[in-house]
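User: I've been trying to design a sequence by hand for this structure and keep getting stuck. Would you show me what you'd pick, starting by listing the structure so we're on the same page?

Assistant: Good idea, let's start from the same input. This is the structure you sent:
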């Protein structure tokens, strides 16, 4: 069964007709579609190409960072020569960029010894800079952040903590303890350093840290021990608690964080909290089962929770205010330049063919455009799975995904969505982007 549902096949066949016109009529919004069984829609207007090649493997990782520079020419990526096992302390990931204007030429820049399959080394263009990139690394007995200039090919500075997310002005980062994360949930932390709090249920010296990217000044904002004092029926001193998945609000005044612990024999509990940039005014944002997220504005967050994309207000209630659409869990982002009318998301592998679906969603009409189905071979599971993690270019015209569907391991694929966003969609029935 596909991972989408809509009211009828007729709606599916017409979903690319007149999307912009529908949005501008001012008519009452149509009922929200349930997307779990939606067939592939026509997306023949979308051009896709692989921008990295084998025999080595390339990917970027998470979906909430800038992968393409301000000029739209250079695309960041990481490179390794193996797959299908956990990174070891001695494993090095190469960092480079693809010149999209020169036959997708690979330009090697530097390297890192602090990375994971799911989030890489937090590689990204530094907000507010045209030439600086950020990435995490290991130096001696600590994980650090490097600021590197791609134009001069020189290291600018090394900062004392590894970062998770950076404010829109590029001045501040919120940081994690990747030793703790690696111990509790491999695949999101980094190999090479032991967790000093391995036997501690809720450490008071682990949590969300802020770091000034100019001076390296750090401050513990919210500790795991502080969050553990907030009652929960499934909490126990026997559990091991941690925080990760931070993201600053658009104005940089608050940040969200996932507070998690594992359940035996399997499963985990996730609660999403927010706090001010100084660690004060901690609020419950999502009470249960929060997954992937995106700030809408400084007061609202869109979060994938229990089969629906739901809006939460940062008011401490922990309950959703509205459900925008129903679909299985995915990595969601707004498309820049569309006045938050368009979003992109994906799914995990579904069905016998293990297809990951990439789609656009148009809020004013409640319609979806399925961009492609990308087969993920069964060996891409668990810690070293390869999620699509769609990233959007700053001009909103392109989407980049990680995918192994081409048969040469995980590689980078660039999709041009500009004609769909511009409202040029037609009702033809040609195939979608070929990811089968």
């Amino acid at each position: 069964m596909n991972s989408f549902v809509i009211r009828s096949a007729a709606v599916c066949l017409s979903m690319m007709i007149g999307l912009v016109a529908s949005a501008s009529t001012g008519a009452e919004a149509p009922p929200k579609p349930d997307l779990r069984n939606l067939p592939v829609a026509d997306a023949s207007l979308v051009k896709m190409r692989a921008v990295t090649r084998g025999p080595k493997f390339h990917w970027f990782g998470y979906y909430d960072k800038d992968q393409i520079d301000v000029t739209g020419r250079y695309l960041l990526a990481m490179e390794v020569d193996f797959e299908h096992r956990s990174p070891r302390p001695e494993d090095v990931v190469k960092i480079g960029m693809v010149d999209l204007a020169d036959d997708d030429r690979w330009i090697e820049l530097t390297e890192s010894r602090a990375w994971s399959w799911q989030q890489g080394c937090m590689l990204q263009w530094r907000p507010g800079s045209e030439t600086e990139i950020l990435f995490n690394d290991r130096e001696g007995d600590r994980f650090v952040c490097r600021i590197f200039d791609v134009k001069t090919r020189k290291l600018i500075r090394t900062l004392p903590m590894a970062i998770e997310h950076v404010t829109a002005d590029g001045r501040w980062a919120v940081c994690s303890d990747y030793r703790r994360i690696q111990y509790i949930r491999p695949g999101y932390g980094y190999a090479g350093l032991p967790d000093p709090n391995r036997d501690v249920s809720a450490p008071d010296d682990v949590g969300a840290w802020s770091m000034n990217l100019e001076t390296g000044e750090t401050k513990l904002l919210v500790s795991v021990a502080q969050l553990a004092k907030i009652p929960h029926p499934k909490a126990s001193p026997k559990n091991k608690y941690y925080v990760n998945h931070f993201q600053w609000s658009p104005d940089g005044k608050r940040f969200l964080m996932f507070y998690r612990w594992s359940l035996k024999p399997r499963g985990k509990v996730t609660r999403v909290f927010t706090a001010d940039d100084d660690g004060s005014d901690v609020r419950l944002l999502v009470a249960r089962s929060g997954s992937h997220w995106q700030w809408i504005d400084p007061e609202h967050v869109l979060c994938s929770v229990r089969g629906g994309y739901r809006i939460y207000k940062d008011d401490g209630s922990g309950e959703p205010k509205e459900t925008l659409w129903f679909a299985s869990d995915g990595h969601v982002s707004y498309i820049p330049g569309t006045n938050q009318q368009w979003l992109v998301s994906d799914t995990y592998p579904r069905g016998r063919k293990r297809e990951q679906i990439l789609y656009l969603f148009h809020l004013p009409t409640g319609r979806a455009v399925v961009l492609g189905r990308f087969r993920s071979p069964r060996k891409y599971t668990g810690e070293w799975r390869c999620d699509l993690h769609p990233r959007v270019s700053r001009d909103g015209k392109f989407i980049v995904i990680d995918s192994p569907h081409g048969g040469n391991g995980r590689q980078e694929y660039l999709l041009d969505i500009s004609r769909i966003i511009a409202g040029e969609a037609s009702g033809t029935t040609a195939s979608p982007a070929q990811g089968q």
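That's my pick for every position. To get oriented when you compare it with your attempt: The chain is about 5% helix and 40% strand. Residues 1-63+339-436 form one domain.
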